[in-house]
Each structure stands twice: as structure tokens, then as C-alpha cells.
Write a structure and sequence with these properties.
Length: 703
């Protein structure tokens, strides 16, 4: 593709905001919420989403819109790490449990913050090579006196909730394959339910159930079909196999269920969200098309057996990394004058879905952010009406909203039954999808089938500013009955925290600008904020002890956007502090002052390689390194900036790390099975070139 074509596509980002219009033509009204089920208890937060329905609503009302200005820090606990803290804390019997980077678990006194115990599952940090989206995890589960956690290297571990003593430890994956676990387990009927990640690296997704008493596996449900020669596991897989073409199993297929679940005890249905295809590019994965079940689907299962009941596919023939693993919420809404038991989701594809949770019938869908891959969702078929050019596959590149970050990523939403609104941490980030014409499948490596160089941000000043203007984040209060926004708040960055709403009429959300903020639930008025020193991506919770209501949130900037684009879109965040912070009315504790640190920037070696070598090195970098070390080698600060690495002095020095694995204990994996010595030479040439081009100053980043 010529340079003019590339420049035109990237410059087209200027048009995103004006050409892509959010279709919300009805004025929102409040639904009848008299039948809505409120999840959670008035004392604890003992389940991941506050209850099986995952509403993330607290019925506590001591902290209100009238007195929230008096909210202060009660205590804070330093987690000792800061990279990508995404955990939802749990509160059980006066103890608060929270996880940090590399799956470390802490048990603290929920009133004072005193450490009761800590547990390190000793994760194999070389598994960092298999993580698409940072060394994160989203918390633990509690059941029968046990804390249960999933680890990045694919284990499920139970420890005694009182002492932290390990009770059992089981491997849930084939550890020779690039599976990982980043999600929190859910507990249903005495079973710990867990999925996994790794779709981009070529795995076949599944969800498994384990006996909480001893860790014995009870059932497993695969989300995509395997090699037909091996037979099919059940009727659901036989049905799915008819929707795939080619030899998809050689690429793994994807469909990893890496995060969201919910459970309806009355219907006895477990809902799982299924992820993207592997590779993304369907023309490679399933040449000739097909729906590729159960990619990008909500699937309802029987929790005691794993038996398939129904599914709804949000993105048939998924080819954009449009996962349906985003937060799902169960509620009861009055629609067309009738109470309906619904499941609600705002997946990556940009549409908000209201679905009958007993049958899987689509009740309504409307885009909650600008989209240009489909015009609407057909109410009769439940299928998107696609814009043909958006199915990029083996066609021309396509500038698209949403991109692979989605209109909503993993950050949890909240449903407030008093307002009838769903509060969505939404984002806009355009992306150029382009066929990787030189694609060759590499086992265990990043395989999307998309030309990553086309998706990277432009280096030209005006083009970059255009893209930056098109990248947005907002908090949307969404009316699920009228399918429109009641109010919305614009953020400075697209990567902001999960949401909590309360009976006190408040919505709490942390943000990339290192603040925890309280808004009025009915109109979005900003009432209070607290400077946390580092960005907050995790969702807050609320609990009560001795008659006092507390708000708790884990802070620690990170996650995939922060790693890839955090250097180019810097937030008002210090990367060196990760904490659990707990607030109550009248408290006045202070955080320790930030250290005044200066990052040394040694003079890099002179760039002497020719343009062709540097270009090849950039392709190697974009394919293997960008997801951690940042677009254009501009680091977020969470991981060492390669431009100032002493290893750049010679090819042999950088080879000891990239090929030899000298830093695997720190989470830097070896790429000896993926890259050659010649590849490393070209990679080094590109990094040196980036270190010498002064792009940060040219782009005036951070100003």
C-alpha cells in the first residue's frame, strides 16, 4: 500500500467525530422499576458484582448527594506494585480481600486497613508473553470459608479465608499453550466457574466448573468447535461446527471467555460472555464466512452440568476483536407495559442490548457510541445490518469505530434500580483494520491477521493531533428502556474506571486523571473528587461496618490501553503507586507525598541503519512488543522505556533478553521461538531510530 493511501486513511480520523452520529432520537424516560431485583446485602460485598445479578449497585444510603462533600480517606494500603490494578475487592466478615499484579492476594481489616495475611501464588512470570493486555487480574471469589483466585499461568487456587493457608491448587489449562486467566471466578451452587484468555495467540476457548471443596473439575463447556476428526463434545458443538469453514482449528478458533458472567438462581441459568475469533481476520480463520458460533455471544448454561440452553450472538462472523465478554447485568424492567426479566450488555461492538434472559430473545438494541461498521440491529432477526466495506478481511483497509478497544471494554457498568439507568464507562478510539497480506500463522505468537502497522498511530504532527481529537472517553447514564442517554460526562482519556451506583443517589467512578469522582445519579452533576496519585481503572465497591458506610477502590494505572498508548496519551497519573483506598464520611487521612523522581535518559546509540531495515524492525516491534512497550516505543512509564535501555549498545546485549530470557523473572519473556537473531538486529535498529527521532517533543505530548 502506498504512503498516500496510508496517510489518507489515518488523516480520515479527523472526520470520525463529525461523520459518525450517535443514533438516539427518543427522549429518555425512566422505566417502572417496581419489579427490579436489588442485588447485594447491606453489610458486605461478598460477590464480584455485588450479587449474582452483577448490578454493582449498593443499597447503602448513608452517603448521599447532600453530604458526599464530607467524604474523606479513612485508610490506604500500599499494594507494593502499581501495574494494572483491576480488582474488585470483596468484603466478608469484616475482612476486605484484594488482588494486585501477578495475582498476589491481600486480606485486610476492613475498618482499619491492618494486614491480616497475604498470599503469593508464585506465578510463572514468563507467562507475560501470553498476555494480550497486561499482567492483570480482576479479583477473587469467596465461598465456604475459602478465597478462590485464578492465576495468570492458568491455575485455580483456594486459600483459607481466615489464615491465607493454601487448601488446593489445580491447573485449568494446557500450560504448554498460551492460555492465561485474568478474570475473577464466580461461585454458583458450590462450584467455582472460570474461563481463560489467549485468543490472539491461537487457543480454543472454554469455561470450566470446579468443586469448591477440593478443586475437582466437574464439567467443561467449549465455546468454539475443535478439529472435526476428534469428534464433537455435545450437540451445541455440532451446531457450532456447521457455522465454520476451512480449517479453523489449526488457528485455535478463539472464543475465550475471559471475564464476564452472571447467574439467575430462579431460572438456574449461568450466563457467560464469549470473546473474539482467532485470528481476528475471518477471511483467514474461516474462509468463506459463516457465523462462527459461539464467538461474540452471550451463552446460557445449566450451572450444574454445563449444558447449553440458548445463545445470542452480538457479532456474527466476528472479525474486529468485538468480544462479548463485557459486563452483563440482570434486572427486571417494564417494557411495553410488561415486566421482563432481562440481561443487559454493552459489548465492544458499540450496541447496547436488552435481551430476555429466559429465552435469549432480543428485546432492543441501539448504539451507545458512534459506530460505522453496521447501520443498526435488525429487530426481527437480531442481526446487525453491516456496512459491506467494514468487513475488511481481504478487502481494502477500513477506518472504523469502534476499534479493537471497543465502545466499552472490561470496566464494569452499574445498574441503579432507583433511577432505572445503566452507567457505562464508554470510549471512542478509531482504528484502521487492514489485511496482513504476508500473514503466516506462528504458534504461540500474536496472530490477528491484521496489519498492525496500519493500526498504529501516525507520526505526522497534524495527523496525530487529528487522531487524538477523535479518541474520547465518557461516562454515559443509559436508559435501557428508551435506549438513549439520560446524561453523559466527557473524560480527558478513554481509559477510565468501572462504576458503582448507590441508594444514596450517587455514581462513583475513578478515572485516568487519578481521581475518584462522585456524580449525582439522576443528572451527572460532579459533587466530589479525591486525587489518588495514579489512574484508577478498577471499579469501586461499598460496604457497612458498625453503622458506617465505606467506599473502597483499588488504584493502579495500567491495562492494555495504558501500555500501548499511555505514552502518547499521558494521564495525570504517577505510575509508581498502587493502593487500596477506603473512604467514609468525616475521615481525614492523607496519602503519602509523591516522590520527586527524574527518569534518566541516556544518549542512545547513533541511528545508522537504512530505512528498509528500520521499517522491517518496526513491523517486528508492532507485532511482538507494542502491546507492552508502547506505540512508537513511547512507554507509559509502567514498563521500562526501551529507547533508554543500556541493552541498545550492541546486538548481543539485547539478544540476551529478547532471545535468552535474561529478565523472565521480571516478567519479560523470551522470544526465542518467535524471533531470530536477524529479527532482533532489525528490532534494535528500529528502537534506536525511535530513540533519536524526538517524536514526543514534535508531538508536544502532554501539553
Amino acid at each position: 500500500m502506498n504512503n498516500k493511501r496510508q496517510s489518507a486513511l489515518r488523516a480520515a480520523s479527523l472526520l470520525c467525530a463529525s461523520l459518525l452520529i450517535l443514533a438516539c432520537d427518543k427522549a429518555p424516560t425512566q422505566p417502572d422499576t417496581s419489579e427490579v431485583t436489588v442485588a447485594g446485602t447491606t453489610q458486605e460485598w461478598n460477590k464480584h458484582g455485588g450479587g449474582d445479578a452483577e448490578q454493582r449497585f449498593s443499597p447503602l444510603n448513608q452517603i448521599t448527594a447532600e453530604n458526599v462533600s464530607g467524604l474523606g480517606l479513612a485508610w490506604a494500603f500500599d499494594l507494593g506494585v502499581s501495574r494494572g490494578i483491576e480488582a474488585t475487592p470483596l468484603v466478608v466478615d469484616g475482612t476486605i480481600y484484594v488482588t494486585a499484579t501477578w495475582n498476589k492476594v491481600f486480606a485486610l481489616d476492613a475498618k482499619t486497613g491492618a494486614l491480616r495475611w497475604q498470599f503469593d501464588p508464585q506465578v510463572d512470570r514468563s507467562k507475560g508473553a501470553d498476555l494480550c493486555c497486561d499482567a492483570v487480574n480482576r479479583g477473587v471469589a469467596y465461598a465456604d470459608g475459602k478465597i478462590i483466585t485464578g492465576t495468570i499461568d492458568g491455575r485455580l487456587v483456594a486459600v483459607d479465608a481466615k489464615t491465607g493457608k493454601k487448601l488446593w491448587d489445580v491447573v485449568t489449562i494446557d500450560q504448554s499453550k498460551p492460555y492465561t486467566i485474568t478474570g475473577a471466578p464466580r461461585i454458583v451452587n458450590g462450584k467455582a466457574i472460570i474461563g481463560n484468555g489467549g485468543a490472539e495467540y491461537g487457543v480454543r476457548g472454554y469455561v470450566s466448573a470446579y468443586d469448591i471443596s477440593n478443586g475437582e473439575m466437574l464439567w467443561r463447556f467449549y465455546t468454539v468447535p475443535g478439529n472435526p476428526e476428534d469428534g464433537v463434545e455435545n450437540e451445541a458443538m455440532a451446531k457450532a461446527a456447521k457455522t465454520w469453514k476451512g480449517e479453523w482449528w489449526k488457528y485455535g478458533g478463539g472464543g475465550t471467555a475471559w471475564d464476564s458472567m452472571a447467574y439467575d438462581p430462579e431460572l438456574d441459568l449461568l450466563y457467560i460472555g464469549v470473546g473474539n475469533g482467532s485470528p481476528w481476520n475471518q477471511s483467514i480463520r474461516s474462509p468463506g464466512g459463516g457465523d462462527n458460533l459461539y464467538l461474540s455471544s452471550i451463552v446460557a448454561l445449566r450451572p450444574d452440568t454445563g449444558e447449553y440452553v440458548w445463545h445470542y450472538q452480538t457479532t456474527p462472523g466476528e472479525t474486529w476483536d468485538y468480544t462479548a465478554t463485557q459486563h452483563m447485568i440482570l434486572a427486571e424492567l417494564t417494557i411495553d407495559g410488561k415486566p421482563r426479566k432481562v440481561i443487559m450488555q454493552a459489548p465492544k461492538n458499540g450496541f447496547f442490548y436488552v435481551i430476555d434472559r429466559a429465552t435469549g430473545e432480543l428485546l432492543s438494541a441501539k448504539n451507545y457510541v458512534p459506530v460505522n461498521w453496521a447501520t443498526h440491529i435488525d429487530s426481527e432477526t437480531g442481526r446487525p445490518v453491516e456496512i459491506p466495506d467494514a468487513r475488511w478481511g481481504d478487502k481494502a483497509p477500513y477506518l472504523q469505530l469502534p476499534g479493537p478497544f471497543g465502545g466499552h471494554n472490561w470496566h464494569p457498568m452499574s445498574f441503579n434500580p432507583n433511577t432505572g439507568l445503566v452507567y457505562i464507562p464508554a470510549l471512542e478510539a478509531p482504528y484502521v483494520y487492514a489485511n496482513d497480506q504476508g500473514f503466516k500463522y506462528r504458534e504461540g505468537a500474536w496472530n490477528t491477521g491484521s496489519d498492525s502497522a496500519m493500526g498504529s498511530l501516525p507520526s505526522g504532527i497534524e495527523q496525530f493531533k487529528a487522531v487524538k481529537a477523535a479518541v474520547k472517553g465518557r461516562l454515559i447514564a443509559w436508559d435501557p428502556v428508551q435506549q438513549g442517554p439520560a446524561w453523559q460526562v466527557e473524560h480527558n482519556s478513554p481509559w477510565n474506571g468501572g462504576v458503582l451506583s448507590t441508594a444514596g443517589g450517587l455514581v462513583f467512578q475513578g478515572n485516568a486523571d487519578a481521581k475518584l469522582v462522585a456524580y449525582r445519579a439522576d443528572n451527572g452533576e460532579r459533587l466530589w473528587d479525591f486525587f489518588a496519585q495514579t489512574g484508577i481503572v478498577a471499579p469501586p465497591i461499598s460496604y457497612e461496618l458498625d453503622g458506617e458506610q465505606y467506599i473502597a477502590v483499588a488504584s493502579g494505572w495500567g491495562g492494555v490501553f495504558a501500555l500501548v498508548y499511555g505514552g502518547l496519551f499521558p494521564a495525570a497519573s504517577d505510575p509508581g503507586v498502587g493502593r487500596l483506598m477506603v473512604f467514609k464520611l468525616g475521615a481525614k487521612a492523607k496519602l503519602p507525598a509523591l516522590a520527586d523522581t527524574v527518569v534518566a535518559k541516556p544518549t542512545p546509540p547513533e541511528s545508522t541503519a537504512d530505512a528498509a531495515i528500520i521499517a522491517k524492525g518496526k513491523h517486528i516491534y508492532d507485532t511482538n512488543c507494542v502491546v507492552c512497550h508502547g506505540d512508537h516505543v513511547i512507554s507509559s512509564g509502567l514498563i521500562p522505556d526501551l529507547r533508554w535501555s543500556p541493552l541498545l549498545v550492541a546486538d548481543e546485549a539485547i539478544e540476551t533478553v529478547v532471545l535468552g530470557g535474561a529478565l523472565t523473572s521480571r516478567g519479560m519473556p523470551a522470544f526465542k521461538d518467535v524471533l531470530s537473531k536477524d529479527d532482533v538486529k532489525m528490532l534494535r535498529a528500529y528502537i534506536i531510530s525511535a530513540a533519536n527521532d524526538g517524536l514526543e517533543a514534535k508531538l508536544d505530548i502532554g501539553k
